[in-house]
Amino acid sequence: MNHVKRVAELIDEDVVESREVAQGQVGIVLWIKSASGRELVAKFNGEHNENLLIEARMLDDLFALADIPSPEVLARSSDCLIMPYVPSHPGRVSESAEAHAARCVAKLHAHSPEDGRYGYSYDTLIGGLDQPNPWEEDWITFFSQHRLVRMGRQCMEKGRFGEDVMQKIDALADRLGDLIPEPREAGLVHGDLWGGNILWGEETVAAFIDPALCYADPEAELAFSTMFHTFTPRFYEIYGEYRPLSEDFWEVRKPLYNLYPLLVHVMIYGGGYQAEVEQTLARFS
């Protein structure tokens, strides 16, 4: 595929400059300068599936439902997604930018579905993997069955671990309601909130990218953000001024909720993530 030619077709404008800026799990990402001077980002999908169209739909929703910084999708197709280039600030994140991030995430989590259910109106993606979002009345059913059990079975079927680990996941899913009370309400979550999916400006967040949307317990999102140290403790302090954290968040909910992103990483990468899964399962067995 001639990537530059494809971009020119989609934007109906000549491309005068381009360079590769990233290699994603699905394909390459190009920085583009058009003949009119626009700076754009073009994300390509070599698999020719619906993933980029789902991503575009999620970006639309992120802005429409929560009105937090996210790139506008200028052109979309199954092989290419085109958005404005969002300059980001390299280096240490400023205190004001992190405070802005806390306010944005709290605002996102405050958006609840009208019927209060967990799930989403369509299936989404995380790390290029399918993420089904069937509607459920209660969070424990949604998280245990459509996150832990489903991803655990996929890992077992791929040979990432054996039936013994899957049995422990099933056992934990059965007693999850004894460990985590139902949350106050469902909230919209970004779903993949690690540092690589936040473009930082000098004083604010420039954009949140690559979402994995659903309505969930917002604290599942906060838990995932701790896995790769996305934020400093100051973020959680400011977030807590808008939405206080549960008393058992750090000791109980955080490790339990992080089982899902750990299983996602086991599915994609294998390796050391399996040991972390087994440690958590042993702790709560």
Account of the 3D structure:
It is a single chain. The chain is an alpha+beta fold and 285 residues long. It has 2 domains: 3-84, Phosphorylase Kinase, domain 1, CATH 3.30.200; 95-283, Aminoglycoside phosphotransferase (APH), C-terminal lobe (Aminoglycoside 3'-phosphotransferase, Chain: A, domain 2, Alpha-Beta Complex), CATH 3.90.1200.10. It contains 11 helices and 11 strands. The chain has helices at 3-11, 51-66, 95-109, 139-157, 163-174, 176-179, 218-227, 233-242, 249-257, 259-269, 273-283, and strands spanning 15-23, 28-34, 39-44, 75-76, 80-84, 124-126, 129-131, 187-189, 198-200, 205-208, 214-216. It has a 5-stranded antiparallel beta sheet. A hairpin with a 4-residue loop joins strand 9 (198-200) and strand 10 (205-208). Helix 4 (139-157) runs parallel beside helix 10 and helix 10 packs antiparallel against helix 11. The radius of gyration is 20 Å and the shape is globular. The protein starts with a helix and ends with a helix. The model has no long low-confidence stretch (mean pLDDT 95).
List keywords for this structure.
Aminoglycoside 3'-phosphotransferase, Chain: A, domain 2, 285 residues, alpha+beta, two-stranded antiparallel sheet, five-stranded antiparallel beta sheet, globular, Phosphorylase Kinase, domain 1
Spatial separation of the terminal alpha carbons? 51 Å
Major sheet summary line: 5 strands, antiparallel
Structural class by secondary-structure content:
alpha+beta
Query: At the third CATH level, what is the topology name of the largest domain?
Result: Aminoglycoside 3'-phosphotransferase, Chain: A, domain 2
**Helix amount, in percent?**
40-55%
